[in-house]
Amino acid sequence: MKFPKLILTIGIILSIVILCSTSVKANNNIEIYLDGQRIDIADSPQIINGRVLLPMRSLFEMFYLDVHWDHNNRTVETVIGDRRIKIQINNNQVSHTHFNWHSDEWHEQFNIVDQPPILINGKTYMPLRFIAETLDFMVTWDDETRNVSINRPIFFRDGSWFAFDGFWSSRTLTPPNELIYRPLDESIDMYWNYRGIDNLIFIKIPIDTGASGWGHLYMLDNNGRSRLIHTTGCQIANIKMDDNFIYMLKFQRSPWTPTSSIFRIQLDNPSDRIRLGDNSFSYGRSIRLNEIAETSEFWLEGTGYGFEIREDGVFTTGYNASLILEGRLSPDSLDFLKQSYGYYLLPRDGGTPILMENIMLEAEKDKHFFNGLLSILINYFYMLIVVSVGLFLLYMKGIYSKNKPTDQGE
Questions:
Q1: Which of 84, 408, 25 lies closest to 228 in space, CA to CA?
Q2: Residue 236, pLDDT score
Q3: Which of 113, 230, 282, 398 has the fewest CB atoms within 10 Å, measured from its CB?
Q4: What digits encode the pLDDT tens for the residues 288-319?
Q5: Could you tell me the pTM of the whole model?
Q6: How many other C-beta atoms can be found within 10 angstroms of the C-beta atom of residue 400?
Q7: Residue 258 and residue 326: Cα distance in Å, rounded?
Q8: Worst-scoring range by mean pLDDT, 81-85, 117-121, 266-270, 355-359?
Q9: Among 213, 210, 220, 207, which residue's Cα sits nearest to residue 236?
Q10: Is the per-residue pLDDT at 5 higher than 50?
Q11: pLDDT band at 119 (very low <50, low <70, confident <90, very high)
């Protein structure tokens, strides 16, 4: 009979398709723990080629990430700090577009992941470890319990924020013994730039990169939502907020290179960020000019920082920093610097800055020369006191020896 043969043929074909397809295991026993607390996932996690995948919506909502789904190209796009990630269904190649704060441009590069997103029952599933580690979160897998644990450098619990106590390194720290957290408050010195703005907290968590000064800048709210805004090795001197934008003043940590910049970042879409003013200028810091007598050069010293947000733009100080090398300035460039130093109005859209008023900049004698001379005089005075005390003690010893009574034999 033809009918049983047809059934047999269909069964064989289906068996071959299943055997040749990607190995997918639905394991309802897999549990996800975020900062020690179990997370309920509407659809069961999947293990595919040894990787745990979660439904796209559940994964991105868990990490408070915005997601854009392009149905025509079947691509998923999100912004993580300074990076824009784009990945396509069944494609191992991932687009990483990184924002360069110096050139104010996005630069694209491509990486390969071992497990791309796939469609399961009409839903997009994303690799959990790839997204979490892109956020610099720690991911551990317990093969015995079949649990996934995710630890972040900062988390919210019982109405309070807690931050990692130390320099965060998701690649080298060992949970749980090395994961020590403490409540976040203004008394913690190591968390740079703690400040509250309109019920938001901006905080820079130090990270271990092998170089000093690096950290993740997070934006936190009172409802437990956190967003990675920026990863930087520069000091963030000031953050202000207006409407749906934050304005961030960044400067080099060294006082000998007082150069700084002001950036505008959209809160709803952190990838919308621009540098205000001229790229060759330094904005937001006041400076002092010192004369170096030995070389006839001048060096700059930062004396303060700040800016003001107005309806027509950002009002702040600025100067042309293109001729300054390691904080030093040649005599030929002095007039050029004086002409550029003043108060500027920076359009919010990144347009041409307007010089509102020049600031008088007069050179002072190098204070380090006088400080050095004073140090020499103090050391000389100290040595004089020590020598005088020594001579006095020797003198007193001589008098004592002369007047010391001697034993007389009978």
A1: 84
A2: 83
A3: 398
A4: 877 776 556 777 777 778 899 999 999 999 99
A5: 0.72
A6: 9
A7: 9
A8: 266-270
A9: 213
A10: yes
A11: very high
**Closest residue by Cα to residue 265 from 295, 282, 243, 297:** 243
pLDDT of residue 178: 76
First to last CA, the chain: 149
SS3 letters across the chain? CHHHHHHHHHHHHHHHHHHHCCCEEECCCCEEEECCEEECCCCCCEEECCEEEEEHHHHHHHCCCCCEEECCCCEEEEEECCEEEEEECCCCEEEEEEEECCCCEEEEEEEECCCCCEEECCEEEEEHHHHHHHCCCEEEEECCCCEEEEECCEEEECCEEEEECCCECCCCCCCCCCCCEEECCCCCCCCEEEEEECCEEEEEEEECCCCCCCEEEEEEECCCCEEEEEEECCEEEEEEEECCEEEEEEECCCCCCCCEEEEEEECCCCCCEEECCCCCEEECEEEEEEEECCCCEEEEEEEEECEEEECCEEEEEEEECCCCECCEECHHHHHHHHHHCEEEEECCCCCCCEEEEECCCCEEECHHHHHHHHHHHHHHHHHHHHHHHHHHHHHHHHHHHHHCCCCCCC
Compute and round to an integer the Cα radius of gyration of the chain.
32
Contact status, residue 141 vs residue 152, Cβ threshold 8 Å: no
> How far are the Cα atoms of 49, 374, 397 from residue 388, in angstroms, in the given order?
83, 21, 14
Q: Where are the domains of the chain?
A: 22-149, 160-221, 234-385
Average pLDDT over residues 321-330: 74
pLDDT for the residue 330: 75
Considering only CA atoms, which of 363, 315, 358, 322 is closest in space to residue 339?
358
Burial (Cβ within 10 Å: 0-12, 13-18, ≥19) of residue 191: buried
Of 3.30.457.10, 3.40.930.10, 1.20.1250.20, 3.30.70.260, which CATH number belongs to 22-149?
A: 3.30.457.10
Length of the chain: 410
